[in-house]
Amino acid sequence: TTICVNIAGQLAMSGKRVLVIDNDPQMNASQYLLNAKLLEELINSGKTIYSLYKESTDENLLDISGECEESADKEDEKNIIVKVRENLELLCGDLNMSKVNGVNVDDETLKLFIENNSLKDEYEFIFIDCPPTQSIYTTSAFKASYYYLLVIKPDFLSTIGLSLFKNFIANYNKKRNTEDKLKNLGIVINLAQKGNPYHSEKIEEIKEKNKFNKVFETCINNISNIGKSSEEQKLMYETDKCKRAIKNLTNEFLKEYNERMI
Q: CA Rg, the chain, in Å?
C-alpha cells in the first residue's frame, strides 16, 4: 500500500493524471489518503468500491414480482471517485468488501467499471491496491490491469511468498490469450534496513533469482517517518528523509513503463 500510494502521489505531483483504486478490504490506501471524517462520510454515503459489488452480496435481489430491482443510474457511477489532491483521485475502499470474498460475484466488475466509464482515457495511470493472496480481489485486479508490481521485504518468509505469488500469476496467465496475460513490470524492495548485512544478502539473492524480471535499484528503507507521516495523510515526497527515494523509484518505474509501452 505504501509503495502503491506513493508512486501514484509522486506521478500526480509531477503532473500526471492518476487514479488509485482501493481494492483491499483493509482499505489501508484510503486511510492513508483521506482523513477519518471524510472517510466516514464516503462510507456512510455509499461512495466506495463496495457500491460496485453490493447487489451481488444482497440476499434479496428480487422483488415480490420476481423481477430485478433497478440499480443505480450508470451515469452517476463515476461519482464514487473522489479527488484527493491535484491530479490524484481515489476510488475509496470499504470494510464491507470482506462480504464479497466467497460470494458468487463477477470478477470482471472492476474491469467493466473502468471500461464503461472510459477511465483509461481520463487517467494516465490507474493503480489498484489489493491483498497479495489469491482471492476475488486479486483476480478482479488482474483482469483490469496490464501490469503488476511485486513489493517484497528482503527476508526469508517474504521471498517464499514471492515464489508462491509468481506461481499464482503463472496459473492465471495459462488461461489467458496472449494480449490478456498479466505482465510483471518489476519488483520493489520495501522495508529494507540500511547497513543490515542480512538484508543486503537477501536483496542480492532476489536480484540473482529474478534475472529475467526488473528489480528496481531504488529500495525503500524502513524509516519511521513514513509511518508517522501517513497518519497525517502526508506522502513521502512531503516527508523528510523520504523525498529522494520515492522520486528515484518513481523515475525508475516511469522509465520501465515507457519502455514497455514502446
A: 19
Q: Residue 21 and residue 80: Cα distance in Å, rounded?
A: 11
Among candidate residues 227, 220, 156, 157, the one with its CA nearest the CA of residue 187: 220
Cα pseudo-dihedral 245, 250, 251, 257, rounded to 10: 150
Condensed to tens digits (0 to 9), the pLDDT of residues 89-99 reads 999 999 999 98
- The whole-angstrom separation of Cα 71 and Cα 62 is 12
**Are the CB atoms for 37 and 58 separated by under 8 Å?**
no
Amino acid at 220: I
Identify the pLDDT of residue 111. 95
* SS3 (DSSP) at 29: helix
Distance CA 161, CA 239 (A): 30
Mean pLDDT across 176-198: 92
Report the alpha-carbon distance of residue 188 to residue 215 in Å, rounded: 6
Predicted confidence at residue 70, as pLDDT, reads 46
DSSP state of 74: G
Beta strand extents in 159-252 (DSSP E only): 183-192, 220-221
